[in-house]
């Protein structure tokens, strides 16, 4: 292995240490406790070394936000059975969303700390745009299956995501039921009402 390759590998190892230590600090103390100084102390490097890889604390949290949305999409995809009817697949999406939030509460809180992702965030974070496009495919199919021509896909997409986030925020984040990974009856009822509002005349 050449000198340049060894140097690149060492830099990646340090970056991985920064990421791992950041996550450990967050898991122990929460996102508010995360700081460049604390990370540097944890990995036993100087503060400038951390800044070499991440220009600020915000850059570190942005990394975790992007990673979180990619993981959320993966969790939802794993729950969907492609051959099932569209209304059932929409329910499966909701279950995957719930499972991700229940297993990754601190990541979820960071990802949605200021509410649902804005259009600007879609443009800045590819992982958010990819998840949004993935969800919209299901909403488009659900609307198409209804035969209705007067439904706004964007509105229905936002409504769907708002339902998911609202139930998670109320039932998981506020009362810390992290020991339960089974989607609630409230979530199932809400998604059923959502699909019926589109499909029924």
UniProtKB/TrEMBL annotation:
It holds the Pfam family TetR_N. It comes from Sphingobacterium hotanense. Keywords: DNA-binding, Transcription, Transcription regulation. Residues 35-54 bind DNA. PANTHER family: ACREF/ENVCD OPERON REPRESSOR-RELATED, ACREF_ENVCD OPERON REPRESSOR-RELATED. The keyword Transcription applies. Gene3D superfamilies: Tetracycline Repressor, domain 2 (1.10.357.10). This is TetR/AcrR family transcriptional regulator. Residues 12-72 form the HTH tetR-type domain. It comes from the Bacteria.
